[in-house]
Amino acid sequence: MNRAVEFEEDNDRLFCRKLARVVSSTGYPNFADQLFELIQDLVPIHGLELSEWTLDIPSATIREISILGTAGIARERARCAALDQGLLPSILHMNDPLLIQRRLPSSKLHPLCPVHQCNLVAGNGNLRRIICFYRQSSLRTFTLPEMSALKTFSETLLFLLEHHSRSLGRVRQSAAKQNNHAGSVDNAFCKKLEWQGVPLSAREREVCVGLLSGITVPELARRLEVKNSSIESYLKRAASKLGVRGRHGLARWMANS
């Protein structure tokens, strides 16, 4: 087989594997990083930002901007957020997906701010989902062939962004419900501790409340940034003070009036 053909087929397989990783990461914090790695195979960029804009179309203003993920230099862009307003007139009234290139003024005060933007935008009612690709001044502006390459994959990229946004919404709703539940459990647990005069450390109380709220040991360890074994140790110490054994004993203690 011709080496050039082999090289092209290897690149296609690698691209497909990266695309599969992007698909599997939708709804997770690493989605933007996986997408950034994929785009680098199409065109060189320094960073990207995923966002969802809610517009007030009659007043031609932005009601809300939700950041759905960042990668590369986009993580340093908080100081440059005001520059986003310049995109609004181009996306206020739209039907089909757009690919918009912008050159931003460079700033000596904020050298990390990118100067080249290429925005892939999908619109639905007053909602705009945007994939913004960034380049610093060390790279040229996006060329027509590069924009054509991005346009070729625009339907897939915007579909993945929509799926990612919806998945994040479900995760946030679930987390909000869990946090509300944890808050009520925390209040009840603390009142019972006070009533019985049992002194628990702050971390022991956090672990007990988390487990009583239905959070798993691995998830609780991740939230508290400790090892799984540390969660078990805190539980063991707390259970000893309460005169019970293990998670089931803790649950029974909590259930008894």
UniProtKB/TrEMBL annotation:
One Gene Ontology MF term: DNA binding
SMART domains named in the record: HTH_LUXR (SM00421)
InterPro entries on file: Sig_transdc_resp-reg_C-effctor, Tscrpt_reg_LuxR_C, WH-like_DNA-bd_sf
Keywords per UniProt: DNA-binding, Transcription, Transcription regulation
Signal peptide residues on this chain, from the entry's feature table: none
HTH luxR-type domain boundaries: 197-254
Claim: Phosphoprotein is one of the keywords in the record: no
One Pfam family of this chain: GerE
One annotated GO biological process: regulation of DNA-templated transcription
Protein known as: DNA-binding CsgD family transcriptional regulator
Organism: Phytopseudomonas flavescens
